[in-house]
Structures
1.
Amino acid sequence: MKKKLFSLLLTALLSMAVLSGCGSDGTGESSESNPSKESVESTQASTGTEVVEKTMYGGKVVVGIQQDIDSLDPHKATAAGTKEILFNIFEGLVKTDKNGDLMNAIASDYSVSEDGLVYTFTLREGVKFHNGNVVTAEDVKYSLDRVSGLLDGTPLISALSVITNVEIIDTKTVQVTVGSANTELIYSFAAAIIPAGSGEDENASPIGTGPFSYVSYTPQVGIVVKKNAEYWQEGLPYLDEVNFKIVNSAETALMELQGETIQIYAYLTDSQAEVLKDKFQILAAPSANVQALFLNNADPLLSDVRVRQAICYAMDKDTANLFVSGGNSVLISSAMLPALTSYYADLNDAYGTGAEVEKAKALLKEAGYPNGIDLEITVPSNYEFHMQTADVLVEQFKAAGINAKINPVEWNTWLTDVYNGRKYQTTLCAITSDGTPGYLMNRFQSDSKKNFVNFASAKYDEVYKKAAAAMDPTEKANYYKELQKIMSDEAGTAFIMVPPITVAVSPKLGGYTFYPIYVQDMSTIYYK
Amino acid sequence: MKKSSIWKNKYLLIGLFMTGLCLLLGILGLFWTPYEPTKISAAERFVGPSLKHLFGTDNFGRDIFSRVMKGLSATIVIGTSVVLFSATMGILLGALTGYFGGIVDEIVMRITDALNGFPSILLALVLISIFGNGKQNVILALGLVFIPSYVRIVRSEFIRLRDADFIKRARLMGVSKVRILFVHILPNIFSVFWVSVMIGFNNAILAESGMSYLGIGVQPPDASLGKMLSDAQGYLQRAPWFALSSGLTIVWLVLGFALLSEGVQRMNNN
Amino acid sequence: MIKIENLSVAFDGTEVVKNVNLEITDGEILGIVGESGSGKSVTALTLMGLVSETAEVTSGRIVVDDCVLREAGKPVDKKLYRTMQGDNMSMIFQEPMTSLNPTQKVGKQVGEMLKLHTVLTKEEIKAKVLETFEAVGLRNPELVYNCYPHQLSGGMRQRVMIAMAVILHPDLVVADEPTTALDVSIQNQIVALLKDINTKENNSMIFITHDLNLARRICDRVAVMKDGRIVELGATEDIFLRPQESYTKNLMEAVPSRLKRRVSAMKNADNKEPIVQVKDLSVFYEDRGSNPFAKKVRKCIVKNATFDIYKGESLGLVGESGCGKTTLSKAILGMNMITTGEVIQTTVRPQMIFQDPYSSLNPSKTIGWLLQEPLRARGILDPSQKMTKADMEAAAYEMLKRVGLEEKYFTRKPSQLSGGQRQRISIGQALITRPGLIVADEPVSALDVTVQAQIMELMQNLQQEMELSYLFISHDINVVYKMCDRIMVMKEGQILEIGETEEIFAHPQNEYTQTLFRDSL
Amino acid sequence: MKYFVKKIITLIMTLFLVSVAAFLAFQVIPGDVVTSILGTEAPPEREEQLREELGLNKPPVVRYMRWASGVIKGDFGRSYRYSKNMNEMMPVKELIGDKLPVTLWLAALSLILIVLVSIPLGVLWARSTNRFVDAALNCITQVSMAVPSFFLGVLVTYLFGIVFHLFAPGGYISYHDNFKGFLGYLLFPALSIAIPKIAMTARFLRNSMLTEMKSDYVRTAYSKGCSKRRVMYGHVLRNAMMPVVTFLGMIIAEIVAGSIVVEQVFGLPGIGRLLISSINTRDFPVTEILILYITFVVIFVYFLVDILYRVIDPRISEK
């Protein structure tokens, strides 16, 4: 349960990457899509989606979730755990499909001006809110004004704060002007469209256009949604009702699954999956979390690149993977998700995935530490997965003469001291990608507000600027690959792995779909 | 006569045996364990109990028996420190309030009454939130939480004894107040006090394990039995020996002290 | 007709009653006297079938009206006993407070007798209880019926106990120290009541007491017990006037009595030098009850006391419990009291000896430590009087000898000593710093008669040796008579009378003094 | 009357002190509530806006006064964390009002279990002369007191839920939906709370009875010809129950403490769980009211025990 409590605080604004927990928590999707054409299904153990089965309409499903809802306002909700549920209630002008591609949602079509500053959206005919009203251009303008801060000066979604004007061209057309061009901005238009004025109405219940409509929310119990019979996508959803039930802890979840009080649970640990595999469909896909031992480059000891490299060499990622995720994680050496294949550069050879103790020792000796070094690893203690990884690393480091000590801290302390205060030596945690390639690259610019590792490389900054400006996808991809290489060479941070998301689904159900961003799409679930 | 009655006191004997064994293992664990307790081994994950690994191995392939030995010493250290801290404070406050009474007594008693009624684990939770995690803070928080219970006992004993004839006589002899408090009265409350110390030790161990479960207990690299047990419950079905070995060790230790305190109580009554 | 034949009772293999033979005939009061541990209570409890289950009858039997109630080697017939208990034989206990169920109305408790042994209706039971209450001298029986034990006075409680015991007109009433916990005047009323009942009902009564004077007053025959055996059995006057056995003789000798000649310990009665002068002393007690905001209520405990204590004399202070004796003595010692008036002391640090030998010595210390503590305390207070360890030890050994104990006790703890020995240590502890005045608050009341005599003798000897003054507090007039040169009588905080012992006994001026002396005869 | 006035004054004083202490604690606890609500990525304007919304830009004294005056007027404020609907946060009153029945029923059920099982058990134990029964009960009770509470909960879940299928773990049924089902589910968490307390109470009652059996009035009762049974039930039990009542009163606080842990194990949406999450998420309004509430309940229960004691023991009501 403790994980749940804390991961409630896990944060991300729409369209931004978030810092977040680990695979066992399965936190940290965000609402935008992946521009690459790659789907993540390749790694799935088995999903029922491809097989033609008898599908039935109706029925209720209980889904176990680990975090309480942080807000019922889709624009204010920041917790990944909340957004994975609100995905079923709200939709934006566009939305992400299961392949990570953008699909049109409330907008039936859109165009972008050549300079990238004007977006024109055409609204789909007959899309209705859950209250029965048709979505109008006013609703769209209201929603976009609200998130961008044009309404009251307070932007709710940072990425969209670049919007300078929203204009209603006619009843079916809305034109959005932005202050600066960004090829990845379109993904932010997945921000929820809500009825005009509902953000000020004191008694407003959450009303969207998604496949399910809101029924009730009880703190600490969960949220119930029911079928939106007038959903614009034909044939969806199948289920009559979905109950997102808050489960205290992974341990309780296991018992609840076995007791059949929940049918779907998406945050299984490796050993739980082992216990459940006979009775449940166990599905797995990589998460969008990048786990690493983040090194504070400003630390006197770690300012020496040789020390940072030695740490990279000393790590045995293979074993760590085996221990903490049963070997199901994808090992990485950069901040790019391997799932984003066109942008991903496989640099695992640079420091190897096993421990290279001799190289590490040699580097330390060269750096002037023949007797090894002392290292403090700060870990947000609510994340069991990171704590366990840290446990393993400490053992591995011993061989290379790195005397590491774990410093467990509370999540709130971590946020203020480590992330905002940058007062730490190394920290073991994960950052979560929103699925766009740029974000996890962006943060390592030396002047970035989010550069909590204090990585400083002039070359990196320069290449990043080029990447951001590039309009051609291939050119962009090449720049991103170069960024990864620089990061790896400098050993700016010791990346470890992308943990999997392991889902248990009742054998009676079919249609569970993984998205490259983690959302729980209930619209495709059906009883066999 | 006296010796034979000790041998007849089964509670005392069994209690001594159980706690003695724990103490022995705990102290031994400080210097030597059969395996390196942190040594991870991919090949030996979740190995059931065997002669090689008495209690089996855990999710990291570490020898649970070695870890239990380490955990035992940590738990004993926590229990002992908590008891030492709270009992010392309890004696000081209880002695002063009990003997002198008056307005200080009134205030201290109001506070201890309020604290006594307040669920201890909750108080510890708030304190840990302030102090932060870690072994020392757990000790400090639990130590503070348990003070009132000792104040109560010590105070009532001091109230009982302050009007005893032998104390009146000591006052007539001109014995100083401090000497009356700590030389004349204090030794007389030990028989009662020992029992509550042992119960307090148990409460500390159980509270610590509860706190570990709530995620506010001891944090790695420190390990206590409570922490081990709360870690192990995730593997209850996969590797029941993991949870059972740490759980039963707690039960064994607590039971040992409970029997010991019962034995002491019986000895006092005779 | 009750017969106890050759009865032996053992606890854990140790016999505490040995071959006791007793026969009680109708209408007689048989006294069983003896010091604590003599087996008198166990005998009675065995007879009543109330002795604890760990006790074993090792020989003999108990026969009531030709019915064998209990016999060695045979299991107790509990059912038979239950029909007899209460109906045929009943018992009155020493402590009426604890012997009554604190959470049940006394009427119900007495009525339970009838409920168990008769088929009366509720109303009939109540009527009968009220009638019996009346008969045992409880005024306003209706009110008493609905009272809880704590709402009654000690005397009333004992009357309720008696009512309970006699309500079914049993053949035998066993009274185990029925008056020991009561004040002298109440004691007399209860004794009179018991005697009265005995005459009216013509039943038999066993009267167990340690108080020989009392036994002499009430009993027809007396059995003297020692160490579980009956030492002597005979008509009361025979036993008291012509004791045959040496133990009985000693016992009779030890009984303090006004009929025996008094020996004063005072050396020179003419040279009266006051060691303490009390002038117009009033003592108050402040209380605000349970309400911390209420104003303090001031109660006057001792009113305008004026008297002197002379060097070398024993001043007796008598009065009933609650009359202010102890408060007055504490005020003289300067123990945390609110007082007006004056106390002029010419002696340093007068010490006190208490009644209960068990609570007056710190149980966690050794005798040697206890004897040295006053010296240490003095050394801390006044460095000029500091003594070396060896000196203190020597002084302690010397004092041990003085109070008549062997050196081996030096390393023992109080729990290993008998009551008399402890009282000796208390005296030694009080005297080791050689104070001029000792306040002795009922110092011998908790002791057996023979021990009592020894302690009094010790106190008198020490008084002579060390020129001590005693303020001797006691409720026992006979003890005071034996010990004191002058006597002071107190009632409700006031000193009624003060005078030379012989004089005051011969010619008590105050009416209260007269009744007090008469009651204690 | 005086008694009640005194009790009420004490209650108010205690609540005031506790509220100040809790408020101070919140000032000291590390971690910024705004950062932890919004995470690391929020626009700075949003942070400012939220800070203002929550009134955090005011000095502590003002905030406390504002909060306290609200409470006195019956306005307990709104949660920082839990939403009521899309735009409004959940009023604390409503939030707690919804969770309270769960914990109260859990506590009540535990107490009922404790009383129902421990009293007969204690009496039978005291009556039993069989050495084997005595040793067995001694053993069982000692062991059940030595098991950490959460582990007991896990074992109960595993045993009754997974192995025997007596209940569905986590299948909590809201009291709104089905009250019987709600109680049925609550039975098992209540059992995990009750087991060690039953052991304690039974031991306590047994010892109390054995002590009372040695008292003088028991001898008197026997001297009247009472059977052992009659002595036990007619005389001893009531007197032996008096310390047990005090003991049960003290246990209430422990039941509340126990429910904090057990609610986590069984996934019960009660105030214990709410409290822990509120402390962890720095949800001040909820935490403060919960702490005050628990203090109130505990004091109130002690007060009830006091009254009950007066009913059982005629000696006290005299005073």
2.
Amino acid sequence: MAGRRRGRLSVWRFITLRLLQAIPVILVVITATFFLVRIAPGGPFDSEKPVTREVRAALEAQYRLDLPLHRQYLSYLGDLARGDLGPSFKYSGRSVNELIAAGFPVTAELGLYALLVALVVGGGAGIIAALKPHTAQDYLPMSAAMIGICMPSFLLGPLLVLVFGIHLDWLPVSGWGDISGDKVLPSITLGAAYAAYIARLGRAGMLEVLHQDYIRTARAKGLPQWQVVLKHGLRGGLLPVVAFLGPAFAGLLAGSFVVETIFQIPGLGRFYVQAAFNRDYTMILGTTVFLSVLIVLFNLLSDILAAWMNPRLRAQYGRH
Amino acid sequence: MALLQVEDLAVSFVTRNGINTAVDGVSFTVETGRITAIIGESGSGKSVACYSLLGLVPRPPGRIDGGRALFEGRDLLQMKETALRRIRGRDIAMIFQDPMTCLNPYMSIGRQLMEPLRYHHRVSRQAARARALELLAEVGIRDPAATIDNFPHQFSGGMRQRVMIAMALINEPRLLIADEPTTALDVTIQAQILKLIAELQRRRNIGVIFISHDLAVVADIADTIVVMQRGRVVERGEGEEIFQCARHPYTKKLLAAIPSGSKAPRTEPAEPLIRVRNLCTWFAPGRGAAPVKAVDDVSFDIQRGEVLGLVGESGSGKSTIGRSILRLVPVTSGKIDFDGIDLTALRGRELKRMRRRMQMIFQDPFASLNPRMTVYDTLAEPLLLHGIHSRKHVAQGVLRLMDDVGLARAFVRKYPHEFSGGQRQRIAIGRALATRPEFIVADEPVSALDVTIQAQILELLQALGREYGLTMLFVSHDLAVVRHLADRILVLYRGEVVERGSGDELFERPQQAYTRQLLQSIPGATRGF
Amino acid sequence: MSTETLAEIARAERGTSLWADAWLRLRRNKLALIGFAVLSLFVVIALLTPWIAPYSYQAQNLELGASPPSAQHWLGTDIFGRDLLTQILYGGRISLAVGFVATAVALLIGVTWGAIAGYAGGRVDAVMMRLVDILYALPFMIFIVLLTVVFGRNLLLLFLAIGAVEWLTMARIMRGQIQSLRQQEFVEAAISLGLSPATLIRRHLVPNALGPIIVYTTLTIPSVMLLEAFLSFLGLGVQPPQTSWGLLISYGAETMEEYPWLLVFPGLALTLTLFCLNFLGDGLRDALDVRGARD
Amino acid sequence: MPSALFSALPAVAIALLLSACGTGESNVVSGNRDGILHYGNGSEPQGLDPHVVTGIPENHIVRALFEGLAVKNPYTLEPEPGVARSWDISDDGRVITFHINPRARWSNGDAMSAHDYVWSWQRLLSPAMGAEYNYMLFPVKNARAFASGDITDFAEVGVKALDDLTLQVTLTERTPYFLQLMDHYSTFAVHRPTVEKFGGATNRFTRWTRVENMVSNGAFRLKEWLLNRRIVVEKSATYWDRDRVRLNGVVYYPTENVVSEERMFRVGQLHYTQSVPLDKIPVYRQMPDSPYVQAPYLGTYYFLLNTTRPPLDDVRVRRALSLAVDRDKLNDTVLMGTVVSAYSITPPDTLGYYPPKLFGHDAQRARELLAQAGYPGGAGWPGLELTYNTSEDHRKIAVALQQMWQDTLDIEVSLANQEWKVYLDSVTQMHFQVARRGWIGDYVDPNNFLDLFLTGGGNNNTGFADPRYDELILEQAPRAATRRERFAIFHAAETRLMQQMPIIPIYTYTSKHLIHPSVRGMPSNLMDSLNLKYVWLDRQWQADGGGG
């Protein structure tokens, strides 16, 4: 009992430690991004019809760009410490906080569905392939996975729309939460590449596990094959997948831009990419900070999940 | 009628390189209430024979070529998979060799225990749990109620094997197949497990097949002994018969392989090569936590040309001492003096020079060889690194080493996985000797090997020790092995030296209770091997 | 002591035997060989393209416009009336070069970085991997835009830019591999021989960690080819009339309904490359895994 | 329980798929029934404050929510009454008196007054505001001085409320297009109490344009604003001319991706698209009852030539390049006949003005010119780089031009596409040799195009400097007594411009939309100007196949 309690406490220690380690990372990211965006050619007020000098000066004053660079930096850090990501340059009268708050839930939902698709399709394909390696049952799903990996979403998205949205008229071609079923195609499109990776990872993991001694033990108990695979093989086989999920989910959020554009989804991915195109300084910084925090959190989460799924690792973290 | 009657069983493996006959016309019987031991070294087909009965040999590449296996009158070999599944884990249960890998690490032992019961008998969860608790108590798990929800890694090897046994017995099978159930365990634990199996068998009156490579292990418990070599049964008999009058040369070899006797006392004058003073090696598990005192205030000398035995069970710190001397783990405090040089103070280039003079042979010849380096590369590396041979002449050096350790020269381009365990250990020994060291730490060099191989390797070590004039620290959990080889013995318990003396002294006049326990655990001890 | 053995040893001395052996084993894997042959063919075709291409890659025939496959133009023409086969041939030169060189850059940096971090452990590892985290989080597009401005545009820069992005994952995989290998006894054995860390990493750790790296590499090459197209949009990649498979596919995707052949054929070229790479990668992994060679 | 999670996944996935079945009634069908127009608006507006925003998508929404003093008739583009019931222009054309319609109301019921305009224009011109379109009011006396901070008393600026319903505007000089500017959103009035309540006159960071706060004066009022999803406006109950408004509402979609927009149109999610993918146009053209609508547009697509650097400092080289371009062929092939070849900067028929046409496609003459410049047959050609911002259509044109120059003149031209802001930077810094450019008129007048090339002008970007040209545009044209005289001066200036060829005009833009056949009252015009007051949806319209 005592040992277990100490283990619990240490998990919190571990989490705290990791979060503390993340602080310098995020600080460096902020600093580097802050200066990088200002070095990049073109500014937020550049447009095809150039503004007069007076107007530019007034705009810069409104956005505090008239301050010396180090003062801008310090005042940004000050605002950030208070949780204020500043006003957007592009969307007048909107704060970056507000824009992220509007976009993130949508992207998170999209990412979650995409991940579900990836897990169901990819995990399923990986397991099926691993059950009978080097047969058609292996080659077919794995070939599909390979195509999935190299099929960019700017290609898969429109293809799915053409087939299911236009020719078959089963599903809406765009939108998010407006028409029933409009979440299906984007989720599949975004999840496809990840499904392919998961299929490969899952297959390799399952093959490895199915050769373990404890699988033989399970079979010696007289369990049927499906129980052996699902009850004894799955957990160990999918561990590499879990380790992949954290970075993958963070990647999904950052990489949802293309899918969000194709399907006109009001998510964070569009803001993230457009901010860079618009040189929306505060928005670039805000989304970058937000995403790096997410990356840290999701990596931590997938580590914790992996540890939770793997009792041996659980013990290791307990000792840390 | 016999519980199990196997007749003319033949199993082969179809591989790309042709057909490999693994089991060739094997027959044996198992009676209710009796233990049949199948003895043979790795690759003799003893495990395949038993696995094929239960359909646990993967097919393909495995193939059953013929024979019958009547279990209570029904031929197991003719049964469909579904019918066989009803027998597996219910009427016939198995225990496997390595309790570390044979339990599912992701599932609590309780769930694993209950699984066969729930699957075969559709018992409620509560009832299954109650039965599991009973069995855990029966196999000697302390406080089962508190530990039933623990995971395998939270148990020691011996305890895991007890769990395995409980799992096998939970459905009250009529036949138990135990495949080398004690080979991966320390001697003391091995003795306990053997006792447990014999006890349970008597209490339940079931039939047992006990598979082992070591005659000594089964000496006390087997009723019938079947000796197998290269897929065939070469000898069979009631337990006592075999020991008294073995006919087949292979059986005799097996008997002879059981280590026995003490080494003759040394006559050379004592001149310490290594002095260890107040050695402490602690591991810090993390900031703030109390350190694990793997080695705590240990002092001893090793004389030049001496073989010093270091005995203790897993976790006693015996391997850590060896690694501390070789500077493979950081020393917490204390002094290690090698021929007048303080090893703990060495850095960089000096340390590298020193490494030439001291080498190590590891326990697991599977893990201690780089799987992607050929014998040639493995042996040439130290020769080139320490400039013992020029690149031009290194091939000659490699060949000479192979001769020394008794490996055929033709194998020079092969990879470790292409060798048997004993051959691999020969490569490892060759690598250690390549630098012509003065001192060698042998860390359980034979405990992963079959007895027959064990004897060969021990002999090789002895011969090479003489030839190279080696000083050796020989680490083992097996007193019999150590006694056979060592001039003096240290007994280690929980990081401290509890007793020291020559082999005979310890065997005849053990001072400490722990030493006595070690002595009693030697398999076949009562038989006087 | 037969002369045979000596001859064998003499052979063993030449070159690194692991790679020689891997090659021997690879030669027995039919799929991998096919993959290797097709890829080699692609490379040879890419090298010979200026001589074998049926048309000039920039000559336009605006009146013809986009036309489906025909006797004159086997794979059809694009909207400028340019021969698609020629475009694919020339695009292959760029794509294959980008794919292989950029991946090689990523491989070099990633493997070295990951191996050092994984071997050193402790604080060094923490600092090195935090740097990887930082690079992961930086806004990629701003980074690329800056590159174009600071260095101007050229292909070498493109390789470096892609390599500089792709090595991060490589480093992570490598580090994980090295960390688990680090615990193995043969590493301890190598240390006790007195090997320097650099030699130890190079001779003992890296060859044993190559399996997953090779598989990841075969997946990286096609994604790098597509990334190149994206960088071209940001102004870093190849400029028209030069082209690449990635660009052809992205143009083709825009007009997949009107001129499907403009998508299908470049897509086929990329997919074929991907499959061959994959077969070769799996084969190479198996070939390097000397243990798996038993059956 | 991870295993429980995994076993739940298929169920979730199936549920996800099932919920998809049946896409239901399309937006077009329901919109036609309810009088709601579904409008592809190109992108999310950067805001809805008329004095802050600058783009075209913003224009569409702001003009639905607000109304200017005078509005353009969508059929003729001539000004017609808006908030002002009528206006008087003095004989010298410098004083305009607007008579505010007494029925004009803010959406909260407040009456509109001339003071609203005085205050709003002061807001627009205030230096602290940084309104990018403040130059729209520069024709007004002292407006420029006030905007640049030279004078601080707004009373000196030529805007006065003579009484609640009378606004008097004094201009520096006769400005024939001034009335048009009253339909530009920067000159719209905003509701003073609302703006001040949420932050003050010149604060850009206020929340006054949010749905719950916004007070506007147009035919529609803001109903819903979901970022990057849609903006919904509904018919205003307070609008003075509400009886003529036939739509009940409009839904604006930020259709950033033109290909996606076309697909939305195809499945009946949109009545109207902002643009049409080039490759889809032939298909739509062939349709019976085609929804494809194309019309000339007040804009020119051209290439800037950097006249300060060789080889383009030689007018013969510039002319050779221009003459070598076969604009008609480009239009017929790559551009699918969707544009009008241009040979000068001002679009033809800019309120009756026609630009000079000094040249056509002439390969022979181009080669001669190049030879005269010292590069006979392309020999000794130093190379040339053409810069364009990343876009599929720009790329196509650049690739075609590159080959035309290669074929005709035997010269090497390399292409460089740049990301938008990098491209803008290159153009303003003049770090280019040839750069793609487009100009869309803010108001229908040649001046809006010709003043681009004034010496040192912010949009000149070519190094072109001609004192005589400056004089014609700045001195003579404003003093012209009649439109004809004025146009003659412009013609002379434009002739000078095209003789020196600091730009290569390529084509006059066209507006291209897909408009559902049920949409009525949406005529094409040169400004692509939409007046929602005229638009209605034909409920009777029935398609045989639905969406189109």
